[in-house]
């Protein structure tokens, strides 16, 4: 009886754990430093790495990470990468370090991470891991005085549509999914042990002003703004191409419907003649006729991702432009004084 009650309690607890949504990603300070170091050393090349930790309730704890080796394109073999990952996790397990995979991290350039490849990687992880996140770090954005670090996951409604590979307008309206609902950003909490916090306090300089504070007054933001505008223009061109695909689809659909109506009118007139002659009427539907074959609707996934990128570039331009105006006004006031 006691075993039955304990088993029931564990089943209920497991069900509640599965149902609890992911609310926070707690990352050790050392893990963040390792991610920043790896991404900056290879910038502007893009790098990836593995996140290790624990899934505890509504919090995903990231306690360790390791980078994936960079390879030339002709030397990149998927099996070697998988063997390296397994061997690395085995070594971590032998030294009693957390070796549970909770996701991966990757670098990006000016926030250009919303791609089909990222979604496919998410889906591959979801096959083996109940909950996982992707940590995105942007070294180019961090050079502007902010820590461009974010944790992302795919929304449940989007994953359901992606598995069915059905991104038609009807399905998107049925799921009430818009372009902003593809990714979900999870709040990040930085965690440090008491010993590390005390050590960092000892290292803190007595002077309240550091070189980093002076770097924030840097007025040269033209290269960053120019690249964002260039990428924004490219995305607008890509979005225009996607819109042309839909315009061509709707023109073809209108043309097909007109052909169907003309064929039906002709068939009905023929049936009236046959009825007057006492003959059997012909069916008004002919599946073998190519004009009745449904036209495939283009997928809206690419247009949704491009719209996400456009919104990201606009937000970056808006943020940097606002900071630049503040610096210019500050420097003008200092110059006047």
Automatic annotation (TrEMBL):
GO annotation, cellular component aspect: eukaryotic 43S preinitiation complex; eukaryotic 48S preinitiation complex; eukaryotic translation initiation factor 3 complex
Q: Which organism is it from?
A: Momordica charantia (Bitter gourd)
The annotated subunit structure for this chain is: Component of the eukaryotic translation initiation factor 3 (eIF-3) complex.
Q: Which family does it belong to?
A: Belongs to the eIF-3 subunit H family.
- Name of the protein in its database record: Eukaryotic translation initiation factor 3 subunit H
InterPro entries attached to this UniProt entry: eIF3h, eIF3h_C, JAMM/MPN+_dom, JAMM_MPN+_peptidase_M67A, MPN
**Record-linked Pfam families:** eIF3h_C (PF19445), JAB (PF01398)
> Compositional bias (Basic and acidic residues) at which positions?
267-278
Q: Which residues form the MPN domain?
A: 25-158
Per the UniProt entry, what are the Gene Ontology biological process annotations, in alphabetical order? formation of cytoplasmic translation initiation complex
State what this protein does: Component of the eukaryotic translation initiation factor 3 (eIF-3) complex, which is involved in protein synthesis of a specialized repertoire of mRNAs and, together with other initiation factors, stimulates binding of mRNA and methionyl-tRNAi to the 40S ribosome. The eIF-3 complex specifically targets and initiates translation of a subset of mRNAs involved in cell proliferation.
């Amino acid at each position: 009886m006691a075993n039955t009650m304990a088993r029931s309690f564990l089943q209920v607890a497991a069900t509640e754990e599965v149902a609890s949504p992911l609310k926070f990603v707690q990352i050790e300070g050392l893990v963040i430093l390792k991610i920043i170091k790896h991404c900056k050393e290879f910038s502007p090349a893009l790098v990836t790495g593995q996140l290790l930790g624990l899934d505890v309730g509504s919090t995903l704890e990231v306690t360790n990470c390791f980078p994936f080796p960079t390879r030339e394109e002709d030397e990149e073999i998927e099996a070697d990468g998988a063997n390296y990952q397994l061997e690395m996790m085995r070594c971590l397990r032998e030294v009693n370090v957390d070796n549970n995979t909770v996701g991966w991290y990757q670098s990006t350039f000016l926030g250009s991470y919303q791609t089909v490849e990222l979604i496919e990687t998410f889906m591959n992880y979801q096959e083996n891991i109940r909950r996982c996140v992707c940590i995105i770090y942007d070294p180019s954005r961090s050079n502007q005085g902010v820590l461009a670090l974010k944790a992302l996951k795919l929304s449940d409604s989007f994953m359901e549509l992606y598995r069915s590979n059905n991104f038609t307008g009807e399905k998107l309206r049925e799921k009430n999914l818009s372009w902003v609902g593809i990714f979900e950003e999870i709040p990040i909490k930085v965690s440090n042990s008491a010993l590390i916090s005390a050590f960092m306090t000892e290292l803190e300089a007595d002077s309240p002003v550091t070189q980093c504070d002076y770097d924030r007054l840097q007025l040269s933001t033209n290269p960053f703004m120019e690249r964002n505008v260039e990428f924004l223009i490219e995305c607008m061109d890509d979005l225009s191409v996607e819109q042309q695909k839909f315009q061509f689809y709707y023109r073809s659909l209108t043309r097909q419907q007109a052909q169907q109506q003309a064929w039906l009118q002709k068939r009905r007139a023929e049936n009236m003649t046959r009825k007057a002659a006492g003959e059997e009427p012909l069916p008004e539907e002919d599946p073998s006729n190519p004009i009745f074959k449904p036209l495939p609707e283009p997928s809206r996934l690419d247009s949704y991702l491009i719209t996400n990128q456009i919104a990201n570039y606009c937000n970056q331009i808006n943020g940097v432009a606002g900071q630049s105006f503040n610096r210019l006004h500050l420097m003008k006031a200092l110059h006047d004084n």
